[in-house]
Amino acid sequence: MSGLRGTALAVLTLAMAAAACGGGGTAAPAAGKNLSSGTPRPKGDIDAFTWVSYAEPPTLDYVHAFDYPQNMVLSNVCESLMRWTPELKEEPGLAEKAEQRDPKTLVYTIRKGVRFHSGAELTADDVVASLNRHLDEKIGSYWISTFRNVKSITRTGPMEVTVRFKRPDALFNLEMGASPGTVASAASLKAQGKAFGTADGGLDCTGPFKLGAWTKGQSIQLDRFAGYWGTKARSGKVTFTFVPDAAARTNALVTGEADGGYLIPAASVARLRSSGAGTVYGGPNLTTANLIVSDLRAGPLADVRIRQALSLAIDRQGLAKAALGEYSAPTLVPGPVQAWRNVAEARPPAPAVKRDVEAAKKLVAEAGAQGMKIVIATSNAAPEFPVISNAVQAAAQQIGLTAEVRTIAPDAYTALFSDPAARKGIDLFPTFWYLSATDPLELYGLFKTGQFENYGGFSDPAYDKLVDAAEAEFDRVERARLTARLQETAATQLPWIPLADLDNVMFLGKRITGAPTSISYLYYPWAADIGAAG
Fold first, then answer.
1. How confident is the model at residue 33 (pLDDT cuts 50, 70, 90)?
2. 400 near 369, Cβ under 8 Å?
3. 501: number of CA atoms within 13 Å, CB side?
4. DSSP assignment, residue 166?
5. Three-state DSSP state, 92
6. Which among 291, 381, 379 has a CA at the least distance from the CA of 18?
7. At 55, phi and psi to the nearest 5?
8. Rounded distance, CA 264 to CA 280, Å?
9. Which of the residues 26, 174, 332, 524 has an alpha carbon 20 to 30 A from that of 81?
C-alpha cells in the first residue's frame, strides 16, 4: 500500500473494516490516547497461534504486495535488504551494510550465511534478480515509483550489489526495508514464473517462517523455519484466517477462535475491551484518512476554491466520533504526524482544525459553482467508508453543491488505485493511506507531476522542483525541512483532502504476547516475536 507506493492502498480500504502506513508510547502521538510502546515479552514458546485478517491475500508476490493482507503474511516469510523495526527506524536486514559512495551510487554488502527455505545460500545474484523484477514492465510492479530514478542494479562482487541512479534518490535505501527491497531465490523466481507467490507456486525466501498449506478462501499456514539465520520464531506455526465481516472478526477474537488481529475496527474496540478475552493496544502508525481527488483538470474540484470549500465544511470531529473512534485525530494535512518521528526538530506545526461553513459557502459562490455535482465513491466492505462518504455528501450539500454517493464493489474500489478508466466519472474517494518508510517525503513526493499515485494529475512546477531537491538531500533533517514546505503547499492546494490521523489498533488474546504494536508489522517479522503469555 505501500503503497501504490507505500504504501497504500486500496484494499487497505477494506482494512479499516478495519484502516495503512504502520501505527507504542511514542514521540508526538498521532491520535488516540495511551499508545503502547509494545507488548509484554513472552514467557515461553508456543506450539501455534491463529491470526485473523479481513481478506485473503490475492497474491504473495512481493512486487504486487501493496496492501495489508499480503504484507501482513509476507513480512514473516520473506525479508528485505533493510529492516523496518517496531520503533519505525531502519536497520540492516539481508544487507549487512549499505554504503552511499556518491549521490548516484549505493552499494550493498550482502549478509553471509543466510539460507533460503529450500536450503540454497543467499548470494548477490538473488538480490539482483529480485530487485530487477521491479524494472520489468511485463511484470508490472506496483512499486515502480520506488525505482523511478534507478539506472541499473548489478552484481559487483559475490556478496556485493551496486545500484546506480539517474539522479540522486535519498529515499531509495529507506524503501529497501519494505516490499521493494524483498529478496527471493533467483532460481525459484525463474522456475515458478507467474506462479511465484501463489498457492500453487509458493515462495522461496529467507524469513523466520516458511509458507505452509494455503487453503484458498480459508487460511494460510506458516511453519517455523529451523534454518533461519536470525533469532528463531517463538511459535511453531501461525495460521491466518480470512473473515471479511467486521462483526464476525470481533466474535472470533472474543471467543478465542482467533488469538489476535491487527486493524481492529473502531466499532469493535469497546466490545473487545469489555470481553475479558484479551487486550486492545494502540500503537504508532503511518496512516491517514484522506479523500483522493480523482481529477484536478476537469469538473468542479478542478477549482481549488471548491476543494478548499469542501475541506472547510467537513465535520472532522463528528467523523472521529461516528466512525474513526478514539484512535484518530482530525487533521488538515494529508501526511501522518508519525512520519516526522525521526526528525521531530523539523516537524512543522500542524494547522488548527476548524470548520467554517459560511466561509465555504462564500468560496463556492465566488467560483460560481452552486448546484454543481460531485460524485463520491465508497465501498461497503469498509464500515467507516460509507460514514465518511455520507458526511462528505452532507458537507457538500450544505455549501450549495450537489453530491452523489456511489457504492462500488471492493474489487472495483481497488481498481481506482491502478486504473484511470475506473476513476472516470468519480470526483472523490476515501482512502486510509499508509507509508512504508518513516519519512514524510514518501507521501508528499506522490504529488509530483507524473507520479503513479498522483491520481488526480496535480501539477505544479515549483512543487516538482522542491520534490527533486528533497529527494536529492541525504541529510535527514534538512530533507524534512524541505518536505515541510511541500506539506504547506499540499495542505493549501489539496490534491487530497485530509480527514484524520490514525493510530494502529491491535488485539491480543490472553494466550499470546510479544507482538509489536506499530505498523512495522507490514514489513517486520512480527509473528516470530509472539510466544506464550504465561
1. low
2. yes
3. 25
4. S
5. strand
6. 381
7. -155, 155
8. 9
9. 26
Amino acid at 175: E
Task: Please provide residue 371's backbone torsions phi and psi, each rounded to the nearest 5 degrees.
Answer: 85, -10
Angle between helices 476-493 and 461-471 (to 10 degrees): 160
Residues 6+ apart with CB under 8 A from 450: none
Strands 209-215 and 219-224: antiparallel
pTM beyond 0.85, yes or no: yes
Rounded CA-CA distance 48/314 in Å is 46
CA distance 517 to 506: 7
Q: DSSP states of 34-90 as a string? A: S--S--PPPSB-EEEEEEEESS--S---GGG--SHHHHHHHTTT-EESEEE-TTS-E
Q: Are strands 531-532 and 512-513 parallel, antiparallel or unpaired?
A: antiparallel
**Burial zone of 313 (CB within 10 Å; 0-12 exposed, 13-18 middle, 19+ buried):** buried
Cell triple for residue 446?
506522490
Place of cell 490472553: 510
Comparing CA positions, the residue from 354, 352, 357 lying closest to residue 309 is 357
Tens-digit pLDDT profile for residues 446-505: 999 998 889 999 999 999 999 999 999 999 999 999 999 999 999 999 999 999 999 999
pLDDT tops 50 at residue 17: no
Compute and round to an integer the Cα radius of gyration of the chain: 22
Does position 430 have pLDDT exceeding 60, yes or no? yes
Whether pLDDT at 18 is above 80:
no
Quick check: helix, strand or coil at residue 121? strand
CA separation for the pair 437, 530 (Å, rounded): 23
Phi–psi pair at 406, nearest 5 degrees: -115, 115
Query: The C-alpha cell of 410 is what?
Result: 471492493
Contacts of 174 (CB under 8 A, 6+ apart): 82, 90, 437, 438, 439, 442
pLDDT over threshold 60, residue 280: yes
Query: Cβ distance 518 to 37 under 8 Å?
Result: no
- The arrangement of strands across the sheet holding 160-165 comes to 95-102, 105-110, 160-165, 150-157
- Looking at per-residue confidence, does 410 or 433 come out higher? 433
Backbone phi, psi, residue 69, to 5°: -55, -40
Question: Which residue, chain included where needed, has cell 540454497?
Answer: 120
pLDDT, residue 14, reads 29
pLDDT the model gives residue 5: 36
Q: Are 11 and 68 in contact (CB under 8 A)?
A: yes
For residue 9, the model assigns a pLDDT of 32
CA distances from 114 to 63, 84, 119, 122, 158 (A): 22, 19, 9, 6, 14
Q: Which of 291, 290, 296, 294 is nearest to 458 (CA)?
A: 296
Question: If we measure between CA atoms, which residue out of 193, 148, 186 comes closest to residue 450?
Answer: 148
Distance CA 2, CA 445 (A): 13
Per-residue b/e over 6-27, b at no fewer than 16 CB within 10 Å? bbbbbbbbbbbbbbbbbbbebe
H or E stretch including 124?
helix 124-132
